[in-house]
Design goal:
- With about 425 residues, the protein is mainly α.
- It has one domain: Growth Hormone, Chain: A.
- The protein has 20 helices and no strands.
- Helix 11 packs antiparallel against helix 15.
- The longest helix has about 35 residues.
Length: about 425
């Protein structure tokens, strides 16, 4: 079939990308509503910030911990049905969070259900892209951009809705957005190709070793990602007093510190959309391993500097940090597609996200402990140390994949043939 001149995608691939892009948008939107409400919830429930952060632990843990089981199910039964369950389950969970918000135990349990259903997306959606789309890196890049849009819009819209009607309304709105995915799938149904026998065994020592180094690096990236995103709105609310005062003087109407902080957070995640696009382009045109090393390496100094700055300088550093942190994601997903047989792609992405989001959820506990024992600034110093460890693992990954493995991987998944020039 001929492909679209704009994206060089056929009708089937465009429909796949429509569903997966909205799913990616919602999976991250679901997880980023809570951080924008940390301080408002602390005031509403009369609890300490560390306690409020703890309410989200099971949500973030199940978001990642269930990724591998969901991936195995998707490999067995297909991604389409699971994506429908994702939208439906997340919608009902969001409504439940609004109704039982004032009971911390029930609220935390419903947040856990939201994480459980939202955990479906990444192994199902990314596996669907890697199996059904010809240009995997391009598809991952565009899909990643919509994930970033979810990251950007969640704090902004949540902040506005909380400002106008309170946190309960924010979760009611979230339920409506998730149910929108159900309508989308009914209106534009997705079809899946029949599975084909894989020509890649995946048993070569170089491939297996490289995949484990990649998993370890992605696990650390997950800790950095979750730790930074869960604390960012509150961090801005506390660390941008001069910026807030300046905005109050130049903007008509009453602004809350929470609204300013969530708006800044949304702006940064919007810039991160360009990072996702840049990461996808980089992985398509250059060695993805080297791209991964460069993108990851830049996040370290930025995170370290964020621990010692405030106001305008802090915002500028956060833009750099999240541009490259989020830009790494399509590069990671391209590497997974290179190192695993197609018939196991859903499970491979599940393995990634059980580590990045499951183990990454531990950063919520670590951040609460660091904030209690030291201060909130120390969180970003801690994250910069993790970047250093991850860079060592990526260096080992590049070493293992350099001599002769590129040719085997190219033949196995036809990577270069699928990556034509934009």
């Amino acid at each position: 079939m001929k492909s679209s001149p704009a994206l060089q995608l056929d009708a089937h691939e465009r429909r796949i990308l429509l569903t997966t892009a909205y799913g990616h948008f919602m999976s991250h939107f679901n997880m980023l509503v809570f951080p924008a409400l940390v301080l408002p919830l602390a005031l509403r429930l009369n609890l300490e910030v560390a306690v409020i952060l703890g309410l989200s632990f099971w949500m973030y843990l199940l978001f990642g911990l269930t990724a591998l089981p969901w991936g195995i199910i998707a490999d067995r039964f297909g991604a389409r049905k699971l994506l429908f369950v994702f939208f439906l389950g997340a919608g009902f969970s969001s409504i439940g969070a609004a109704l039982w918000m004032d009971s911390p135990i029930i609220f935390a349990s419903i947040l856990a259900a939201l994480g459980l259903f939202s955990g479906i997306y990444h192994p199902a959606g990314l596996g669907l892209i890697s199996k059904e789309m010809t240009r995997v890196s391009l598809g991952m890049g565009y899909n990643g951009m919509f994930g970033n849009l979810g990251l950007a819009m969640a704090p902004l819209l949540t902040g506005i809705i909380n400002w106008l009607w309170g946190p309960r309304a924010a979760y009611l709105f979230l339920g409506g957005l998730n149910f929108g995915g159900v309508i989308l799938m009914l209106t534009y149904p997705v079809t899946e190709s029949k599975p084909e026998p894989s020509t890649q065994s995946g048993t070569g020592n170089g491939i297996v070793t490289a995949f484990f180094f990649l998993l370890a690096a992605m696990m650390l990236a997950g800790i950095i990602y979750r730790g930074a995103t869960v604390i960012l709105p509150a961090y801005f609310e506390l660390k941008t007093p001069m910026l807030y005062q300046w905005l109050v003087t130049v903007t008509p109407g009453a602004l809350s510190k929470n609204l300013v902080a969530t708006t800044i957070t949304s702006f940064i995640f919007l810039i991160g959309i360009l990072g996702q696009y840049s990461g996808g382009r980089c992985a398509e045109r250059f060695d993805p391993g080297l791209c991964y090393l460069v993108f990851f390496g830049i996040t370290g100094p930025a995170a370290f500097s964020m621990a010692f700055t405030s106001d305008h300088i802090l915002v500028g550093l956060a833009v750099i940090f999240f541009f490259f942190l989020l830009g790494m994601q399509p590069i990671e997903n391209t590497l997974i597609a290179r190192f695993t047989p197609k018939r196991f792609h859903h499970s491979a992405y599940g393995a990634k996200f059980i580590l990045t989001f499951g183990v990454g959820a531990l950063s919520v506990k670590m951040i609460a402990a660091i904030e209690t024992a030291y201060d909130i600034e120390t969180v970003f110093f801690f994250l910069s140390l993790i970047v250093g460890i991850a860079l060592g693992l990526i260096g080992l990954l590049i070493t293992k994949t350099r001599p002769g493995i590129d040719a085997k991987v190219t033949n196995a998944v036809d990577f270069q043939a699928r990556s034509t020039k934009l």
